[in-house]
């Protein structure tokens, strides 16, 4: 006799009646986990992106300009073709009426690396991450995401700490190799964080959690750039930037090792109210699995919503990388800002982005929770503001900003970064909503596209920007604006913030197959406190096919009651 998987009477299970424990609460453990992830993301982003402003301090701009001069006699009388501004200036086109002179702003560096060598170093982490981003999903599915993330950050710390020694003694190419090794760790950062956040947060809080987590990116720019600029201008020099980043990241690594956990069931310090709330609203799945996870790759890669999200990953990461890595160079060589002003101009827009991201994420989550808007409307609205708003201000920067009005450029950049604050409530939230079961796999594919966008940035910049002139930068900004418009239009048509049918179908098929292969006796003998709930979920799915698998899990009491019912049914067989 076999169990009937298609009962005549359909019943819908309701969620356990538990009190909601607020996310923003001093004792909210999921808030602590989110803040830890945010701090770690801030550390890794700072270690990766501070090379932008550090490079402006490492390079001897005057020597580089003389080396690239057309006429050899320029080396004997550099004052005839160059006008060197003070490194603390706040923007100037020229203090001299001679328009044939090229303005040079030198921050006092000693390395003479040309633009091709600099672009190669900038691309190093992206080459490394391309190698590991796809294999990362297999590691995260089989090992603890917590320890995978720890190892990745450790790789960052080691390579960052030894960079000054390598740069001063061995030149640009060994530095490039060290950046590639750093990138090997970068391929694990986002997939590991995504897996941990998916285990800790119900769907109604994901936009807020993602917004808070990804603010680590803005914190690295808002706080890291002024610190880097100050250290660069200090007597410690640019090597101190690398040492500072390594020390801070090591402190975070120790805190993560001592306090983090992969999921609520592994957490030892948590209030009972919050534990009950998470038990009732978050699907808990062990990341370490002894059986192969059947991933519907063909359905994932044919999904219009997922493909639209991949396009957004590529375009947004191309634009963000351009702003993070090359914007300090634009402020220095085009707007002619000094080192302190450069740090300020690159940090304040990140603060605007940080504030808008948090406010917008909370607003969207509350609107979805109150059923004012759907998940799809929320992600499309957020993505449209980011793409079309960003394109508008890039066009304004192109046609109205030059070295005569750097303040206007600063205002436009702040507004553009503010529009981009809605991004995580757009394509990023869409990624985690399409099929939560396959979060690690989809994240790895998505991050691969993101890395391709980052890797394309140095190539495209090198293709357009030859002499670092204003017209070349205007072309770059117009390319970014066009990419934003195309990306926003595609997501507006095909994007989605809802659980996809293929995700539900494959979940049901896997549960049915597992039920057919699992003897009834093995279900009876399972202990009540087992962590693997797949068998109970499969049996529950047979009895109650309309259950929302991505929203609830069985509590201990329900599992025990379910076991008793199975035993009673088996006695009747």
Short structural description:
This protein is mostly helical and 573 residues long.
Compute the CA-based radius of gyration: 27 Å
Uncertain runs are: 1-16, 70-91, 95-100, 517-553, 566-573
What is the H level of CATH, i.e. the homologous superfamily of the largest domain? MFS general substrate transporter like domains
- CA(first)-CA(last) distance: 8 Å
Q: What structural class do the secondary elements suggest?
A: mainly alpha
Percent of residues in helices comes to 55-70%
CATH class of the largest domain: Mainly Alpha
The backbone outline, from C-alpha atoms, is globular
Question: What pattern of helices and strands is seen along the backbone?
Answer: HHHEEHHHHHHHHHHHHHHHHHHHH
Domain tally: 2
Strand order of the largest sheet: 1-2
Q: How would a textbook summarize the main sheet?
A: 2 strands, parallel
Q: What is the average of the pLDDT values?
A: 77
DSSP E strands, number: 2
Shape-level CATH architecture of the largest domain:
Up-down Bundle
**Count of helical segments?**
23
Q: Name the beta content range.
A: under 5%
CATH topology of the largest domain: Growth Hormone, Chain: A
Pfam families: MFS_1
Protein name: Major facilitator superfamily (MFS) profile domain-containing protein
Membrane topology: Multi-pass membrane protein
GO molecular function: transmembrane transporter activity
Detailed description of the structure:
- It is a multi-pass membrane protein.
- GO terms for molecular function: transmembrane transporter activity.
- It is found in: Membrane.
- InterPro entries: MFS, MFS_dom, MFS_Na/Anion_cotransporter, MFS_trans_sf.
- The protein has 573 residues and is mainly alpha-helical.
- Helix content is 68%, strand content 1%.
- It folds into 2 domains: 21-69 and 83-89 and 101-285, Growth Hormone, Chain: A (Up-down Bundle), CATH 1.20.1250; 299-517, Growth Hormone, Chain: A, CATH 1.20.1250.20.
- The chain has 23 helices and 2 strands.
- Strands 1-2 form a two-stranded parallel ribbon.
- Helix 7 packs antiparallel against helix 8, helix 8 packs antiparallel against helix 18 and helix 13 packs antiparallel against helix 14.
- The chain is globular.
- The chain starts with 28 loop residues before the first helix and ends with a helix.
- The model is unreliable at 1-16, 70-91, 95-100, 517-553 and 566-573 (pLDDT under 50).
